[in-house]
Amino acid sequence: MASYISSSNLPVPHLRWTWIFCSALLMVLAYVGASEFFLAAKGFAATARDSEGRWLMERKRAASLGGDALILVGASRIQLGLDLKVLRQRTGREPVQLAIDGSSYVPVLQGLARDPEISGTVVVDIMPGPVGFGGENTGASAHFQAAYDAQQTSQFHWPTYLTVENWLADTARRHFINYADGARPLDSLVNRLLNAIATPQYLVTYPDRSRRADYQLVKMPDFYLSRVLRHIGNPKSIDINQPTEQLMRNIELYIAKINPESEAIQTQGGLNDLEAAVATIQARGGQVIFLVMPTSGLILAADSKRFPRAAYWDKLVSTTTAKTVHWQDHPELSGFTCPDGSHLDKRDINAFTNAIIEVAGLRMQ
Amino acid sequence: MPFNTFTFFLFFLLALGTYWSISSWWLKKTTLLVFSQVFYAAWNPPFVILLWFATFSNWLIARQINTTSSDILRKFWLICSISVSLGLLVFFKYGDFVLNNFSELAKYLGIYFRPAPFNMVLPIGISFYTFHALSYTIDIYRRYSVATASLQDFALYMSFFPQLVAGPIVRAGHFLPQLRDSKSFNKDQLGWGLVLFIFGLFQKSVLADAVFAPVVDQLYAEPSLVSAWDAWIGVLAFSGQIFCDFSGYSTCAIGLALCFGFNFPDNFRAPYGAVGFSDYWRRWHISLSTWLRDYLYIPLGGNRGGVLATSRALMLTMLIGGLWHGASWMFMLWGGLHGMYLLAEHLLKPVANRLGIFFSNEGVAVATFFVVTFTWIPFRAPDGGVALAVVKALFRPDFPAIPAYTLLCACVCSVGLVWWHIAQNQAHAGAWFIRMPRLLQALTLGLCMLGIFLVSGGEPRGFIYFQF
Predict the structure, then answer these.
(1) Considering the entire predicted model, what is its pTM?
(2) Complex ipTM more than 0.95, yes or no
């Protein structure tokens, strides 16, 4: 007889299971109830989660809308800066938010160019700096686009557990404040409930993937300075523990010393790649608009030093057949201030969206 | 679907409710079979066909072995079964590895050979159900057991969902007899099963994923940028992560099976409390180590021959055991190192016994743990370069790159885990819970459930052993 592995598990114990489980469950429910109550009292609210599943759904919608689609591509600036309801009402087209926070527009734009179903208007949020299609195979946008491409390999999509899981997880997150803005309940406990100086919930994500930021809720200028520091790569030479005014001065000095990046990083190949994508979409009857969203203060100063407009943006404008809109070129777009230097406040996006519609010629005829 | 998802929670409730609401035993088993196929198909539906093929072919072959009296024919059918099972495993799991190594060898010999891209997706759980099938037919060939006439029973043995994708590797002789008689609902089995499931999920979600994984991921992602602090705690943390991940899965599987009235064997017994390497392998992934012992080490001669024969059998077993984990030289290296430790322990036993009087069991357990922990480095590292970089990082004086709070949590939990294993190394798993007063039992269970809730909501990480 083979020496079977031991089955010497403990004999099944005889315990008062109903009492034990009810008490344990009560404890968990008490915590969930209390934490939801106190989070709500501190001004937090449940939000949708900007997940891969949600992006895939929107991407699919972009393909199904054909020429009626108004597709927004880019990163957080366009995701926080445009009001989809206003776009829908005033352009007569169906806006689709495909921007991905903190990620490159390149894989998404490449995917749109490859897709014969895309024949609408594509608005691409361009960050100051070189453009091109090299070295963009990592990050969330590459990952999301790859997931979309994988779905398109066959006509019939096998449902997997992820289909159900995404729906269940999104439903839970929409109804519990503990999960607000992609947090785990542990993050909510540590950073929001137990932290007396917790950053309030200034950012809200909506089911259509648009986001709104309320910068009146955060402590300024600390929030602004931390954003600037992150933007310039948190240099080790700047001590972040100094008084605010001193910190501000040191950041200003640091930015003043920034040298422009070598113009060689903007290659002709990069410009050609981008133009090829534009030409493909426009040949199908679509339209591409390159848009530079507003920035302010030290973020604007840092970008202007590193990527002088003449060496980057102006080169793009001169080589592309896409429509181009830079906020500095239009008085209607220049009057907005980004409280954190990089994004518009929720109070401004209605006016900004209306201004963009006019400047980009998107108004319903 | 992994156990740590909302979807599985619903699936389990539905399966449990349906199973216990049916009175016919045949229908009960059919229900479990259907739910098990749905569970497997939830990852990649077409691979269910592969599972059916492995099931049907092995069931048929086993019947042939059973009914044939000719030794030659019995051997022929056994070879057929081994070929089918190992063929599938080699094709899906090692195809890429074999081709790449062959082309490297050809290049070394000056021959240009560039194989077409293989790009084969590894069917989840294939290593586990292949071993189920192999042990079944080999046992029948050896006349340790008889082939079951019921395809339904055999299919359930192969695909019962709690153990389907990551074990424990249950033997047919242990499981099939449990399918003979109808099971009646038992509140104690359900209660204890749910407790085990919650403990397993706590180990996986809270300890493995939330406490240990962040440190380990950062260390192995950029070993050249971290300090000795990060490296030491990261290496310790991987010991914690892999144990909590895999033992968590096994505990969940044992608990889930019990909810349906089935008994699974233990798969871990406080392995970090092991005194020496033989003891370690009696405690770590017991279902695999005993499988390798019964179907590989003993047939290779075991310790029946001289020193050389024993060494050869031991090293081969451990190298194959390493390779079972994945098609990589790093797993082979890990298996080879463990083989060497076992061999050294075997050869030096008389000396060690004499020296043993100078060391306490606890001291030897800590020393064993540290050697096991360092041996996890090649197991976790994707290649030799990363493994060496991690070893170098162990000697790099600098300030920690990983946040202090994260490091502290991982460090305290690693030390706590080892202490717990040493303290509990003679006790039955779970006995501590049963001895507690009722209020403390409820509190412990509540805290585990609360922990699972607190770390929920992120992207669920797959169980490490799914990839094997």
Answers:
(1) 0.82
(2) no
